[in-house]
Amino acid sequence: MCFNTYIQHIKTEKYRQFGFSLQLHNPIHWFQFADDAAVITGQESENQHLLNRFSIWCQWSNMVVRVDKCSTFGIKKVLSKSAQYLPKLLINKDLIPTIKTGESFEYLGRHFDFNMTNEKHKSEVISLIDELMSEIDLKPLHPKNKILLYSRYVLSKLSWHFTVATISKTWVVENIDSSVNKYIRKWLECQTVLRNALKTSPNDSINELWKSTNNHTNIQYDSYNSTREVLKTFHSQQENKLRNRLKCQGSFFENVSKFSLSQLNAIWSVSQSKLPKNIFNFTIRYINNTLPTRKNLSRWGISSSSDCSFCLHPESLLHVVAGCQHYLERFTWRHDCILNFLAKTFQSLNECKLHVDLPGFQSPSIITGDEYRPDLLVSTSDKHLYVVELTVGFESNLTNNVNRKKAKYKNLIRELDQNFTCVKFINLSVSSLGVFDKECHTFVKMLNELGLDNQHQQYCIRKIISIAIRSTYYIFCCRNKEWTNPELMNI
Fold first, then answer.
1. pTM of the model
2. The domain that contains 394 carries what CATH number?
3. Which domain of life is it from (predicted)?
4. SS3 assignment, position 431
5. Which of 75, 90, 112 finishes a domain?
6. What is the pLDDT of residues 251-272, one digit of tens each?
7. Which of 9, 143, 174, 213 could form a disulfide with 187 if both were Cys (CB 3.0 to 4.6 A apart)?
8. Distance between CA atoms of 147 and 222, rounded to whole angstroms?
9. Which contiguous run of DSSP H or E holds residue 112?
10. What is the pLDDT of residues 183-211, one digit of tens each?
11. For the residues of 131-188, what is the DSSP string, one character each?
12. Are residues 304 and 441 both part of a single domain?
């Protein structure tokens, strides 16, 4: 109320022209926000006069002006140029501290200097990032929780600087991204990038490669005023980068976007987030293809050969987790781990008869004969039969596996139709990292028809994802080693 009274006082006719000299081109500005005030005038004497009035009002309202928390900033014309100078202004006969030449002052969270740069904000952002990231790094947390802290806490701490200051995306990429990436790579146990080594390479061609791909050349110098615009542009650029530029690292996302059953992707993310640290990091490196396969080791200059120890084919990620002919027992073990879980799940259902292609269960051949032997049969009391065929392969082969199995069992389904009221073929195609193909909507429908509620259905899907990931992790850890036929996984 006191400040409002004061403002109304200086707006009266008596003071309306105050601050004008000769010509009406020199207005005064009084910016007030709560107890923070900024007075801008064209002449030092005008500013002092306003400060005197301000002091009188503060004394009248029994309010104290902390001179030590005030500051003055002056710009005047010297010859034909403007220059910063040190004004001498008083409040209650105390000299107000001046902002030294080249330094900045802060008003409402925004730093101002003579050149109107954002250097102070940039230095504070860098210091804040280093302080917070190093503190998170020292905490004994799961990698996903460290990344969660970064995304929800650290980024919110930086948001104010990007709100009040205009900071280019290029500066962020060159100064912030590199620092953050260093920590995230460490947490996820990903390979560090040695791209800067290209700059100092004795090879002229490699030198030219660095020059043509450095940030200054490729990054647009721009700034954003809208957070929505930033996010939209960022998502678009990242999607384009994954699809068109990162052929190795982006193949997983491309395959998932093409072939996966999108309604289950959220469940996959939840399942992944609950994995132990070592397996969680494995999934991240699987996704961006930075696992130490021999093909990658050869690409990184660590191994002289990229060949598999057993078959002498290039040892790529696909080769290790779903391709090597000498690993067929391992792939069968993973397949049976998932099938065993499904069998135990359906075994508990009332009024259902189960035939499973696993030891300890009645064989599907009892119904289908010896020519065809699907993985699992579920028959109900009303003569409905579900023929479940499980396939576990690489993400790029999800739909190929669906089409192959559909063609294989086409005649069997036609024959079984003669003996049952309704026969449904459930083509359950899952990737080695637990991604479900679009055709798996029939599996979800089957769970519903068999009486599983929504919570139980999600539990089954999470378990399948978890078993697929964990068994693939074990297969990868056993690469280039003899297989010992472990027991089926039971989690």
1. 0.70
2. 3.40.91
3. Eukaryota
4. strand
5. 112
6. 788 888 889 999 999 999 999 9
7. 143
8. 27
9. strand 110-112
10. 998 998 886 655 555 556 566 665 665 55
11. HHHHHHHHS---HHHHHHHIIIIIHHHHHHHHHHS---HHHHIIIIIHHHHHHHHHHH
12. yes
